[in-house]
Amino acid sequence: MLHTNRPILQIPKSKLEIVHDVISVCFIIVTFAYVVWAWSNLPERFPTHFDLTGKPNGWGGKGSLIFLPILSLVIYAGLTWLRRIPHQFNYLKEITPANAQEQYVIAIRMISWLKVLILLLFGYIEWMIVHSASGHEPSLGLLPVFLLALFGIIAFYIVKSIRKA
């Protein structure tokens, strides 16, 4: 559903967003570089998916290592583009000319944080896969921390949005 009655505002990027973009691009570059660096030392078949206890339950080859870095790039591009159209987002409050600027900024900040956390999470998962493929015991490690951070950011910004007029 198009929200044609909402104000269309140009929200300039904040310093925090610029920092998040730099960090995000660095994560993508490091993830691609790590795959290239590890490629020749990996076996042809290794665990690529793990259950909730950290035990492998899916196997793949080296080609499967390309999926997360490419997905990271797609998510970065998509969330960067999405940031330009906050007037099209779904909000829990009615958007009016009086509250549009503040609500759009809240939504844009949430997207900025999510972009960084998702790309960090994907980089970490890629590292876990390569680490496991290199003969180390797989474990959940920091995965619960990343998931808690993702859901925490979403909850924080939802509450912030609701509390603002």
What does this structure look like?
- With about 160 residues, the chain is mainly alpha-helical.
- The chain has 4 helices and 2 strands; from the N terminus they run H-E-E-H-H-H.
- The chain has a two-stranded antiparallel sheet.
- The two termini are about 25 Å apart.
Fraction in helix:
55-70%
What is the first-to-last residue Cα distance? 23 Å
Quickly count the helices: 4
Can you write the helix and strand succession as a string?
A: HEEHHH
Describe the biggest sheet?
Answer: 2 strands, antiparallel
Entry keywords:
single chain; mainly alpha; 4 helices; 165 residues; elongated
What is this entry, summarized?
The chain is mostly helical. The chain has helices spanning 15-39, 67-82, 100-133, 143-163; strands at 46-50, 56-60.
Write the layout of secondary structure elements.
Elements: H1 15-39, E1 46-50, E2 56-60, H2 67-82, H3 100-133, H4 143-163
Antiparallel strand pairs: 1-2
Helix pairs in contact: 1-2, 1-3, 2-3, 3-4
